[in-house]
Design brief:
It contains 13 helices and 15 strands. It is α/β, with parallel strands linked by helices. Helix 2 crosses helix 3 and helix 11 packs across helix 12.
Length: 383
């Protein structure tokens, strides 16, 4: 019960941003002494802090008389280190417990082609960070990830990561607990953290690859196998492109950033080759037949997933959302046309920015501060 109350208190603070002990007790249906005791322990351990005077005075909770001291998730000191392993670059940034700024990664370096080179570059990157100790290192990685064991099982686009002592290499640099998390699942957590009141959704991300994740009742979909959301490896009829996974015809070979640019170059060999050139041409010419076929395949894959999962909301992130509005409108029409629920009720198709850092922080709170079960890596296991 104590762990349950702590999790509920943290979840509510994530939703509210700032709140008094009385506000938290009322919203959770707990006694003020219980909430006060937990809140004081969280302050002692650096999870909560009292908000500054501006937040106190400007809060909508302010009342006549002597207001309760407002609390918030700690912002004054980073508690986690966020690490994003990307196909092109690796990013690092210290993370406070509040929702961080998404675009500000402290250090970055080109992702090399071997585990040894990556470890060497990681050590150099660590030397650029003034803070040397963290509650945990939270790592967003592509591919198939066994999050329970912290092992990358397979990564079609970064094959050197599979079967290597990836987590051990990170621990050698910092010596802190390392949590590996699949990147689309992190994006789903981040979107939920920024929009906690929304209903269940399927998140689909387009970028270096194509992946998805499912969030139900505020939690990531739990699955028995260390594989989920591999929408990009759905075969597309008539597609003969070879995929990094070793198969032929995967959706990812049409809908990833690189694949879209390849298709654009093939259709317009005399045009520029950049994403800006592609976007400009779409803005002028609209949805050409080659692009329509790709969007049809993308929409059919998403609609099929919604039909299987029984969801009526899809959140799309990544490069597709950066293209002219006509692209997203066309994709939405395809999804609606292929989803059974749209024949009876409302289907929500929305685009959103990537919130990777927010997802990493949410995962860190869930896995390291108040895990479901007692853990040696729990930061406040004795509260």
């Amino acid at each position: 019960m104590g762990r349950h109350n702590k999790r509920a208190l943290l979840d509510r603070m994530l939703r509210l941003g700032t709140a008094s002990r009385a506000d938290l007790a009322k919203s959770l249906g707990l006694s003020q002494p219980t909430v006060g005791r937990i809140a004081d322990a969280l302050i002692e351990h650096g999870v909560f802090e009292e908000a500054d005077e501006a937040a106190q005075n400007g809060s909508e909770h302010a009342k006549m008389g002597r207001p309760g001291r407002m609390l918030r998730l700690a912002q004054s000191k980073p508690r986690f280190l966020g690490l994003q392993l990307g196909l092109g670059e690796t990013y690092l940034s210290p993370l406070p417990l509040c929702l961080p700024e998404e675009n500000e990664w402290r250090v970055r370096f080109r992702t090399p082609a071997t585990a040894k080179e990556w470890s060497q570059k990681l050590r150099k990157a660590a030397a650029q960070l003034p803070q040397k100790k963290f509650w945990g290192i939270l790592v967003s990685v592509p591919g198939l990830v066994d999050e329970r064991t912290g092992e990358i099982l397979y990564s079609p686009n970064l094959r050197w990561t599979a079967g290597t002592a990836f987590s051990a290499a990170i621990r050698e640099v910092w010596g802190d607990p390392v949590i590996l998390l699949q990147e689309e699942r992190i994006l789903a957590l981040g979107h939920h953290s920024a929009n906690p009141g929304g209903e269940d959704f399927l998140l689909v991300d387009f970028g270096e690859g194509v992946g998805s994740a499912v969030l139900i009742s505020g939690k990531l979909y739990a699955h028995p196998l260390p594989i989920s959301g591999e929408l990009g490896h759905t075969p597309v009829m008539g597609n003969q492109r070879r995929c990094g996974c070793g198969s032929v015809g995967c959706l990812e070979t049409l809908a990833s950033t690189r694949a879209l640019l390849d298709s654009f170059a093939a259709a317009h060999p005399k045009s520029g080759k950049t994403w800006a050139d592609f976007s400009e041409l779409v803005a002028v010419r609209g949805i050409e037949p080659w692009l329509a076929k790709t969007l049809d395949a993308m929409g059919a894959g998403i609609a099929g997933a919604l039909n299987v999962l029984g969801l009526r909301r899809v959140v799309i992130t990544g490069t597709v959302t950066e293209l002219p509005p006509a692209v997203f409108a066309y994709l939405t029409e395809v999804i609606v046309r292929g989803t059974l629920w749209a024949r009876f009720g409302e289907l929500k198709v929305e685009k959103a920015p990537r919130r990777r850092k927010a997802g990493l922080v949410a995962a860190g709170i869930d896995r390291l501060i108040v895990p479901d079960e007692a853990s040696e890596t729990a930061v406040i296991s004795r509260i």
